[in-house]
UniProtKB/TrEMBL annotation:
Domain of life, per lineage: Bacteria
Gene Ontology molecular-function annotations: monooxygenase activity
Species annotation: Streptomyces javensis
Record keywords, A-Z: Cytoplasm, FAD, Flavoprotein, Monooxygenase, NADP, Nucleotide-binding, Oxidoreductase
Record's function text: An FAD-requiring monooxygenase active on some tetracycline antibiotic derivatives, which leads to their inactivation. Hydroxylates carbon 11a of tetracycline and some analogs.
Protein known as: Flavin-dependent monooxygenase
Length: 390
């Protein structure tokens, strides 16, 4: 490896799955990097729910990161179970948990566990916690530079925005902003479900459950540690989803408002809201334009949601972010010329992201049709080709 390559300064903004995968694969190729993260620590906030890592994206990224074998015992293949229900808890479609020996090309892993795996594989000090990026710019010499909230200036040869939906790096490349999709989630959590909420645990199963009707939905995911994360999904104006529905000072009133949206639904499904523990958090769903791309700007690129934010209805966000990180690292390792490396990465990433974003946008429409249960049942029947209960 050339001395020139070893002396590159690579700055990554954001310590999510994509940014950490990038740092890990670079490390394996002897290329140091620094990750600047706003959170004060790895445990400063809730890391979210569970992810199903696809064989051709998330798992492939872990293979390049040398972590695939460590991932397997941490994952939950049984999380591949899927239940589609109507509003009366009638089963419209069921994919049972994989049996021993069946294999599962999309095993689940909690986001927290995945983050711990990636962080544990990096040299100490790679991630700089509590570092808020105040500004990004191209310096007089054309090199990208960060200004941190404490006034520190950081110049880099390569600046990577892995900083999510509201990226501070994206404006160097694109004037696109995320747009509200018309759909909002409200996140909830049930703890110790097998003991405290056995009926809900039975209803949801060991993986994911989607209950759909009346152009709205209740989505539930089994997480590790006996938890179920619940997403109440409604079509609503963005401001109403934030201020007209959620009252942080009155959780009971918030639950009642949510329950009032599902007046004639099965009581077992309504229990996903009524029995929730802790705060209920609004999540308006935003997306960048399908096919979002930019012209090459020397030394700067994006990955994950910063590059191609989409709704969660393709199950692709974290998987694509990790694959982006791995492939960007491989391109930087393969090319002495940085612009050649960044061009190669973006040339492969743009069409891949566009296809996933288009699928996500189509699925968002499908999930909120009056006959969403039939549409999804037909889609999953075609995909599984006889491998599920009907």
């Amino acid at each position: 490896m050339s001395t020139q390559r070893r002396e590159r300064r690579i700055a990554i903004v954001g310590a999510g799955p994509g940014g950490l995968t990038l740092a890990r694969v670079l490390h394996l190729h002897g290329i140091p990097s620094t990750v600047y993260e706003l959170d004060a620590s790895a445990t400063a906030r809730d890391q979210g729910g569970t992810l199903d890592l696809d064989e051709e994206s998330g798992q492939r990224a872990l293979l390049h990161a040398g972590l695939l074998e460590e991932f397997r015992p941490l994952s939950r293949p049984e999380g591949g179970e899927l239940r589609l229900l109507g509003k009366h808890a009638d089963v419209g479609f069921h994919i049972p948990p994989p049996r021993d020996g069946d294999g599962n090309d999309r095993p689940e892993i909690d986001r927290r566990v995945l983050k711990e795996l990636l962080l544990g594989s990096l040299p100490e000090g790679t991630v700089r916690w509590g570092q808020k990026v105040k500004a990004v710019a191209l310096g007089a010499a054309g090199r990208p530079a960060l200004t941190l909230a404490d006034g520190t200036a950081v110049e880099a040869d390569v600046l990577v925005g892995a900083d999510g939906a509201w990226s501070r790096v994206r404006p160097l490349l694109s004037d696109a902003d995320p747009v509200y999709t018309g759909v909002s989630f409200v996140d909830g959590l049930l703890n110790d479900v097998d003991t405290r909420h056995p009926a809900v645990a039975e209803l949801v199963g060991r993986g994911s459950m989607f209950a759909l009707a009346d152009e709205k939905g209740l989505f539930a995911q089994r997480n590790g540690g006996g938890r179920i994360r619940v997403y109440t999904a409604v079509k609503a104006p963005e401001e109403w989803s934030r201020s007209g529905l959620i009252d942080p000072a009155d959780p009971a009133a918030t639950r009642k408002r949510l329950l009032d949206l599902f007046p004639d639904w099965d009581e077992g499904l309504r229990a996903l809201i009524a029995d929730s523990d802790g705060p209920l958090v609004p999540r308006p769903i935003h997306a960048l334009p399908v096919g979002h791309h930019w012209d090459r700007v020397p030394g700067v690129t994006l990955l994950g949601d910063a590059a191609h934010l989409m709704s969660p209805f393709a199950g692709a966000g974290a998987n694509l972010a990790m694959l982006d990180g791995a492939e960007l690292a491989l391109a930087l390792a393969a090319h002495d010329d940085l612009e050649t490396a960044l061009h190669a990465y973006e040339t492969a990433m743009f069409p891949r992201a566009e296809a996933a974003a288009a699928q996500s946008a189509d699925h968002l429409v499908d999930f909120f049709q009056p006959d969403a249960l039939r549409i999804l049942r037909d889609a999953f029947t075609t995909l599984t080709a006889g491998g599920a209960d009907r």
